[in-house]
Specification:
Number of helices: 6
CATH topology: FAS1 domain
Strand order of the largest sheet: 2-1-7-6-5-4-3
Radius of gyration: 15 Å
Distance between the termini: 17 Å
Order of helices and strands: HHHEHHHEEEEEE
Strand content: 15-25%
CATH architecture: Roll
Shape: globular
Helix content: 25-40%
CATH superfamily: FAS1 domain
Oligomer: single chain
Largest sheet: 7 strands, mixed
Number of strands: 7
Length: about 190
């Protein structure tokens, strides 16, 4: 991937991650390592990349971020909102899709998909509103907020539900989703 495309993909991924955090719903508690004694949030213990690397439900996301060489971006100052698919979400992709995306020749496609999960800025669940959300990928997905439930709909009409919200990082926020979103180009 040439440097310009890599920079755009990196910035897009950072933004998509920022957006993803804002659209999450469900458990609004921070992860155990960032909870205060009284159950309230404390200062974040690491960057988005460090939190993803330290949580076993994100091992596939971490492998994808590393394959696309986006780890440094998610460790940069930000802020970013990331909608983070779990291992189960990646496992629900059609057979062979993930293996294909992780191949070096498909790094541009992988970067585009990852960037579609990132939004620029620090968007907490309470600030999420229904409507189109622009990602760092350059494409948008739809957000639907119904009470405390947040649903994301990609360009193909596939839906992801936010299952955990507001995991605080030093450079943004992470919202956990149950499906992988695919940009229009995928």
């Amino acid at each position: 991937m040439n440097m310009k495309k890599k920079l755009i993909a990196t910035l897009a991924f950072g933004a998509a991650l920022s957006l993803g955090v804002a659209a999450c719903a469900g458990d609004t508690s921070p992860p155990p390592d960032s909870r205060a004694e009284d159950g309230g949030s404390t200062e974040a213990d690491g960057t988005i990349t460090q939190i993803v690397a330290g949580d076993s439900q994100f091992s596939t996301l971490l492998a994808a971020v590393q394959a696309a060489d986006l780890g440094e971006t998610l460790s940069s100052e930000g802020p970013f909102t990331v909608f983070a698919p779990t291992d189960d979400a990646f496992g629900a992709l059609p057979e062979g899709t993930l293996d294909s995306l992780l191949k070096p020749r498909n790094v541009d496609d992988l970067s585009a998909i990852l960037a579609y999960h990132v939004v620029s800025g620090d968007v907490e669940a309470a600030d999420v509103r229904s409507g189109a959300v622009a990602t760092v990928n350059g494409a948008a997905f739809e957000v639907s907020v119904d009470g405390g439930d947040i649903t994301l709909t990609d360009a193909a009409g596939n839906q992801a539900i936010v299952t955990v919200t507001d995991i605080q990082a030093s450079n943004g926020v992470i919202h956990v989703i149950d499906s992988v979103l695919l940009p229009p180009s995928a």
